[in-house]
Design brief:
Blueprint lengths: L10 E5 L3 H12 L3 E5 L3 H9 L17 E4 L12 H8 L4 E2 L1 H12 L5 E5 L4 H14 L3 E6 L15 E6 L2 H5 L8 E4 L7 H4 L2 H13 L3 E5 L3 H12 L3 E6 L7 E5 L2 E6 L2 E7 L9 H16 L4 H9 L9 E6 L2 E5 L6 H10 L3 E6 L17 E7 L3 H8 L5 E5 L1 H13 L5 E5 L12 H13 L5 E2 L8
Parallel strand pairs: 1-2, 1-3, 3-4, 5-7, 5-8, 6-7, 8-9, 9-10, 10-11, 15-19, 16-17, 16-19, 17-18
Antiparallel strand pairs: 11-12, 12-13, 14-15, 14-20
Helix pairs in contact: 5-10, 5-11, 8-9, 14-15
Length: 468
């Protein structure tokens, strides 16, 4: 835990007592703050009280005596309308911040020179975050990984010289971190997302821009117009900008030429990494992720050799285009996190011959948008509630069967792939939510791994059991 000493002996109000909110409250108390916390969920209030946190309805506190109001990122700050606690805080002139802001204040107070890499973007955040942390750890650096990737940032070890932090930041977290100042800040891409919480695409983009605008080195993907404009704007304001692209050369930065990553600077260009053969970094989207990771690791002092070694040993992000087993020329790929068509597209575009396991609880729009990728699919194995609708979309263009359940789909796909003399992938990339048959996409992905592990003559590439 990181005790939040910057509010020692001061009053802090806090709303939101889920996992990260409770951790934040405990970190504030550990640092000596006088915390009053609340939540709309009575069970969360009870758990916090049992954990020793002072709880009280924030409608009844003296807001004028609060040094700060800490809001959990899942609670609306601006749209569709501010939460009632936000209105009370602003009416009293109390700053509204989140756990990432508390973290960066502790870093500045105790170890301002310890490297911080912060990552955001609409897509690819988690893979890029995990890849950077892996490269740093593989090089022997003391590395802390947290944020939106699943580990609350204030539960990490305390900042100290030589300790590296890799923090994934959602737009909600950035909105509550006004002084976020990474050593290297990454903005991968921007497409419309979370507009129910941000109102407009421009407001969403403005929030994302804050992360890179406050960075010593800003690493920005320039394959969309919003990010291109952001790169140009903050560079004019004096920020050092490294551009990355998966589509075309850049003058200063890193770009993809097929599976080769090229570093360009001052008119010169040379290959810095080759992704061919790295199963966990297949596809153009992963070329972008790898380019960003390389730029960030260079910015915090790693050598090109250290980075290449880390790239080659990257195990992949669990449930996201993760190779989990191999039998002959067949690789088994767990892409359970692909819960809609857009999320499934990167995996389907990364392999030429796919035995595709798809279906579950359908999302709006189905899989019609994936039609350009249907030529990659040798056969589809449809499961769950979405199976009839998916079958209708596939029609006569793709061979399919309605397998019904995941165990049937894995067994049939594996058998069919064995009869294929060409290199191929048996891939779970459902393009659906899991809730008709599984608790969540993690449980679905773990079930896939266990089923693959139960096949004969499969060499597993990941640990089985509860740690696939």
């Amino acid at each position: 835990m990181i005790p939040v000493t910057t509010f020692k002996d001061r009053n802090v109000a806090l709303f939101g007592l889920g996992g990260s909110g409770l951790a934040t409250a405990q970190a504030l108390v550990a640092g000596g703050a006088n915390v009053t916390a609340w939540d709309d969920n009575p069970d969360s209030v009870t758990r916090a009280s049992q954990a020793g946190i002072t709880v009280a309805d924030l409608r009844g506190i003296e807001w004028s005596k609060q040094a700060a109001f800490v809001l959990s990122p899942g609670v609306p700050l601006t749209h569709p309308k501010p939460h009632w606690t936000v209105d009370l805080a602003k009416a009293a002139g109390v700053e509204v911040i989140g756990d990432v802001e508390l973290f960066v204040r502790e870093r500045r107070a105790h170890a301002p020179d310890c490297p911080l890499i912060a990552i955001t973007g609409t897509n690819g955040k988690s893979t890029t975050t995990a890849l950077i942390a892996h490269i740093l750890k593989a090089s022997g650096r003391d590395t802390q990984l947290g944020g939106n990737i699943g580990t609350a940032v204030l539960t990490l070890d305390e900042p100290k010289a030589g300790r590296f932090y890799v923090v994934e930041c959602s737009s909600y977290q950035i909105d509550l971190a006004p002084t976020l100042n990474p050593t290297a800040g990454i903005l991968l891409n921007l497409t419309p997302d979370h507009l129910d919480r941000h109102g407009t695409m421009q407001h969403y983009a403005d929030i994302k821009e804050r992360l890179v605008a406050g960075s010593d080195t800003a690493i920005i993907g320039v394959d969309d117009s919003y990010c291109t404009m952001i790169a140009d704007r903050i560079e004019r304001a004096g920020v050092k900008v490294e551009r990355i692209s998966k589509r075309s050369p850049v003058a200063d930065g890193i770009y993809a030429d097929g599976t080769r990553l090229i570093q360009a600077h001052a008119g010169a260009a040379e290959e810095i990494a080759e992704l061919d053969g790295i199963q966990t970094l297949k596809g153009a989207h992963n070329a972008q992720n790898a380019a960003a990771a390389i730029a960030a690791c260079l910015a915090v002092g790693l050598s090109a050799d250290e980075i290449r070694k880390g790239l080659n040993s990257f195990p992949g992000l669990k449930h996201r285009m993760q190779p989990v087993g191999r039998r002959g020329e067949v690789v088994f790929v767990n892409d359970s996190k692909a819960t809609n068509a857009e999320a499934a597209a990167p995996a389907l575009s990364s392999y030429d011959r796919i035995y595709w396991i798809a279906g579950g609880l359908p999302k709006e729009g189905g899989i019609a948008s994936l039609a350009p990728l249907f030529p990659h699919i040798v056969k589809a194995y449809l499961i769950g509630e979405a199976a009839p609708a998916f079958a209708a979309t596939l029609g006569e263009s793709v061979c399919y069967e309605i397998s019904g359940t995941l165990d049937q789909a894995v067994a049939h796909a594996a058998a069919d792939a064995d009869d294929d003399s060409l290199s191929s992938a048996v891939m779970l990339s459902p393009a659906c939510a899991s809730f008709d048959q599984f608790k969540n996409f993690e449980v679905r992905g773990d079930a896939f791994v266990q089923l693959v592990a139960g096949l004969q003559d499969v060499t597993m590439l990941v640990e089985t059991g509860n740690r696939s």
